[in-house]
Amino acid sequence: MRTIQSIDVFPIRLPITQTFRFSSGSAGKAGETASFVLVRLTDSAGEIGWGEGRPMPQWSYETVESITTTTRRYLAPAIIGQEITDRAGLHRRMHSVVGRGPSTGFPIAKAAVDMALHDLAARSANLPLRSYLGGSSANSAIALSYTVTAHDVETAHREVEGALEQGFRHFNFKAAVAPETDLALAKAIRQTAGQDAFVWADANQGFQPHEALRVARGFVDMGVNVLEQPFPADQLQLMRRLRNQCPIPLAVDEASVSPADFFHYAAEGLVDYLIVKVTRSGGLWPSLQQIATAQAAGLPFLVSGLTDSLLTKHAACQLAATFGHTGPAALNGSQFIDESSLYPNKSQHEQNGTVQLGEQSGIGVQPDQQLVEQLLIKDGAL
Questions:
Q1: What is the secondary structure of 27-79 as a DSSP string?
Q2: 21 falls in which pLDDT band (50, 70, 90)?
Q3: Boundaries of each Mandelate racemase/muconate lactonizing enzyme C-terminal domain copy (predicted)?
């Protein structure tokens, strides 16, 4: 029986290449840096697995400091000696030291550990993660959704044209940043992208009740396929009210951290899609439970992220491919983060707006360990 022998935690910063604004905040400005926490698990046979957490205080309460200390002081001691294939046991142990409040406690920290264990277990089985999870290795291509950052028509038009030239076919944009421009922006994206594109509006909790219904009705005419998280995560009653009048498919993101959270929305018929976001949901194991809930409710899913790096992008795509999902996946970290130093072979895994999952065991990519050490945030700077 192979067990977890050691856990190493690496808080790092990567350069931000493009400013990314959404209604509840920003993922950073060009020229600044973004925080990531990498976790490396080593088992009793010497095999390693990598996971990643992407703290973004503008989105959640977790920070690079809290994820680092929580993982080192609480999660790591609890899982030493854990059998590497016991994924349910992993989450029981993590929950025993960091429990839940209204929803999953420290999901981003737990997601990094969960991802590393899945990578390790699949590597030990010599299987691609999607095969380890029960899917076919033949499912190997996931189409990405390009995130449009512009909030004026002309710039959006040029941005979409540029993305099409790069091979992207699907598009998402941040609604409620400048609500007065949302309809014109949606129209410009649809007209430029064409009728085959999946166009996805994400409000990131930013609408007022009177705005949401007006914009949702307009989105129908503009060809938007889904409206995501129009209201604050704790305002379930606003979703109920909107649902009774809303003509456009709805989804939630920040409101659906745990499988139980999504169950509430699905059971009331308030959503038309599950948004699979591995980092937000505490890892791959809880995400599998969310997908099972969506399937039981007859709902499809979409894939999203937190401007994560290539490691999480690959893990999320491996999960999606397990179920035959081919996209769109709004995994946009590469648009805003320079991760080339960590993943010098990135071009082998992503071309023409599509993630290509190879036959490598585990998640399929690993960061350059020497460069991880160079990018490390020193303890005194945390």
A1: EE-TTSEEEEEEEEEEETTS-EEEEEE---TTTSS--HHHHHHHIIIIIHHHH
A2: low
A3: 153-249
